[in-house]
Amino acid sequence: MSIESVETGSIYYDPYDYEIDRDPHPVWRRMREEAPVYWNERYEFFALSRFQDVWDAYHDTATFSSSHGVELERLDRPVEQPMMIFMDPPEHDRLRALVSKAFTPGRVRRLEESITALVDEYLDPFRGTSGFDFVRDFGALLPPVVIGELLGVPAADRDLFRTWNDQLLHREEGQTEPGEEAAEAGRAMFLYTLEMIAERRRRPREDLITALTRAEVQDAGGVRTLTEDEVVFFVLLLAGAGVETVARLLSWTAVVLARNPDQRALLAADPSLVPGAIEELLRFEAPSPVNGRWTTRPVEVQGVTIPAESKVLLLNGSANRDPREFADPDRFDVRRSIGRHITFGFGAHFCLGAALARMEGRLALAGTLRRFPVWEIDESELVPVHTSTVRGFSSVPVHLA
Ligand code: HEM
Known about the structure:
Keywords: Heme, Iron, Metal-binding, Monooxygenase, Oxidoreductase. It comes from Actinomadura fibrosa. By secondary structure, the chain is α+β, with helices and mostly antiparallel strands. The protein has 17 helices and 14 strands. Helices cover about 45% and strands about 15% of the residues. The protein has a five-stranded mixed sheet with strand order 1-2-10-7-3, with helices on both faces. Strands 4-14-11 form a three-stranded antiparallel sheet. The structure holds protoporphyrin IX containing FE (HEM). Protoporphyrin IX containing FE binds next to α12, α13 and α17. The site of protoporphyrin IX containing FE (HEM) has 25 residues, from α12, α13 and α17.
């Protein structure tokens, strides 16, 4: 079958449409059933929506390349920044092996105590009040400080680092590219990180920056370490990948649990259900539901040939609601047993920070339920975030009894 004969009928989907983005599940359901290889004429992209198709595409990096990035608006040109998320194997795998020597599970586990303390620090002031903004006062504040802690940013610079992070990710309304403020914050963070690297070379510490400067791997050319540029771009990647996503996960946590008070009551009564609830939240409303790829060669999916040099969106958020993979997928069930979901991608680029994201989610939710087992939201007060890759809310006022 050729592009022309892909029958997408009356289905319309694009990730920029605010109205669709408010609740994309109905259109994703139709795409899975009627147009599993969907073609969007206006923005000229294909979209895969079934679990197995998305899963297979993530594993076929030779066909579905990351070299053009993951954002729809930039998929028509290669990305210049030397970040591993924009590289394909084998180049990607060499860099990932190196950073993985420093970004270890043990290092992530050691953050548990400080994350617990941060959750207490952010939430305690709201005890006995009538409410607070779950994202602005908590969910958006926690992730950049955790990344700073992981890297070894001194406590005195915590707020500075967080402000740069906010500016780096900020997009003016209607703009998809970073503005001058974001570019300036990127430069400031770049220089700051270079200075941190120099300082850690002089005085090593028990932090990620020190570990990154020391990490070595043996490859065909001999022993290799990270260049300074690679360390700095990795820090910028962590800031980009590990802040916005976790903030959106926490926004969904407040919203989905308020919409499902019976499930929340189960969690409040039995905190051992919290890790499973985070997994279900990740499945139910993926914070990064759309991930772009660029095809290097023609590929056939569900009888449709996607030509070489096509933009393809992998719809994680739809794959996670595919009834071929999950029983009763539109039911939010904190006791669901989940074998696999695609919220963190899969294959070569599987999210490096998945364990950290899960831990942040778990500690944030447990800390919330301990203090505030019940809250209400007013749907009209929610402020959605609009980007082509991330979905969630930038403001979720919660009303306490
Ligand atoms: C709920 C939170 C998170 C979600 C939903 C999420 C989602 C994802 C997804 C879908 C990918 C795959 C991208 C692709 O295949 O193109 C990815 C990659 C990545 N994530 Fe996450 N992420 C989260 C949190 C984090 C955190 C906390 C960190 C860091 C501390 C992080 C660091 C990374 C990095 C470095 C990659 C690139 C891996 C590679 O290219 O090999 N993420 N993430």
